Automatic annotation (TrEMBL):
Coiled coil: none
Family to which this protein belongs: Belongs to the FAD-binding oxidoreductase/transferase type 4 family.
Record keywords, A-Z: FAD, Flavoprotein, Oxidoreductase
PANTHER family noted in UniProt: D-2-HYDROXYGLUTARATE DEHYDROGENASE, MITOCHONDRIAL (PTHR43716)
SUPFAM superfamilies documented for this protein: FAD-binding/transporter-associated domain-like, FAD-linked oxidases, C-terminal domain
Name of the protein in its database record: FAD-binding oxidoreductase
Organism superkingdom: Bacteria
Cofactor(s), by name: FAD
Amino acid sequence: MLSPQQLETLASLVDQKGLRTDEESCLQYGRDWTRVHSPNPAAVVLPSSIEQVQAVVRWACAENVALVPSGGRSGLSAGAVAANGEVVVALDRMNELSDFDATDRTVRCGGGVVTAQLQEFAESQGLFYPVDFASSGSSQIGGNVATNAGGIKVIRYGMTRDWVAGLKVVTGTGELLDLNRGLVKNNAGYDFRHLMIGSEGTLGIIVEATMRLEAQPAERAVMVLGTPDMASIMQVLRSFRDRVRLEAFEFFSEEALAKVIEHQGLARPFATASHYYALLEFEKIDERAEAAAMECFEHCVEEGWVEDGVMSQSLAQASALWRLREDISETISRWTPYKNDISTIVSRVPSLLKEVEELVGANYPDFEIIWFGHIGDGNVHLNILKPDAMPMEEFQARCGSVSQGVFESVARHGGSISAEHGVGLLKKPYLAYSRSEAEIALMAQLKRVFDPAGIMNPGKILDA
């Protein structure tokens, strides 16, 4: 706990409005979407400027107080959890957009700018910010960069990393780094910008990001297709990718669809029930694009890869079809699911999924399993739903005991234990399945360079 004198000093650094110690604020800001660890921060600070962030970090160094950077708190790896008396640094007040440049198609975002806020700004300028996911209404740009957020359009537009033109980062010593400054070409030595992207706040606090924007795509259409198995989904992907300009290619299981329909009051996309569903979005550049999509659909039906399907005829229908996929996480959250966010190269997804399903089925015969994910970029989400009567500790222990087998399968397929959710606390014990001993040692050395006092989000990613 912090002493009254320490709290008084903190308040002087961020002003009284920027310091919170009440129980409700500590609960709100001390956790993310995970519920494995109980939040227990000593205080929450909400700085309103880069200078205030620097002052807080310098104070923390002098007082040997650990800091946990906090964005929109929508993470799924416990990367923003403050469970051990840390001070949470929340960037909610640093939420301004500035210095828009129509020529460069860039805009500066405070670390607390909400993703949807950036998307709406881009649209107001006739442009487009393509990184998108279900939590865009609450996630913040600083957190997106710190976790290299992906989402539903990676197949065409890539990850957050691909849209970061520059960063301002406060390191663990309080020093401000101004990285890349919006340049397109810059080969003057190491690019620390990319080191900070995905570092989960362990090397510094991302206080500002210069983000690139894109031209608005043409009108988009959405299709939902029912398939008998995962192998068929891959055939559908290959068929459509060769003929239309895909913006997204998602999948979900019948079990996932049934939950969404039951609890969100949505209608089935069509009468036929299939084992799996592919949701794809494509750009209707002209009439030929829609005709090509229909030709693909008919070909896939003839080959037996698709059992039924529907294509949106309006923006409202497209949005309704997207809800079948986007509402899954919110729907199943009531069962406090145990999540695994795994990936491999796209061509190996069916064999990875088969191995994992066999392992999970053998160990969880009494549990409900929900599959969904970004199949177009090789990322699948395994969700095991907690039975209502089972205590959380028992549920976590049973699921955790099988995670090793899941990650062994991931390693055999040359994949990642965390495709887009980050490592945080939850995936830290399994990092060696994706990173070599030498890589982990170098990561620890880099941590000490940027955070010599070890105060920046300690215990996340690494024990060091």
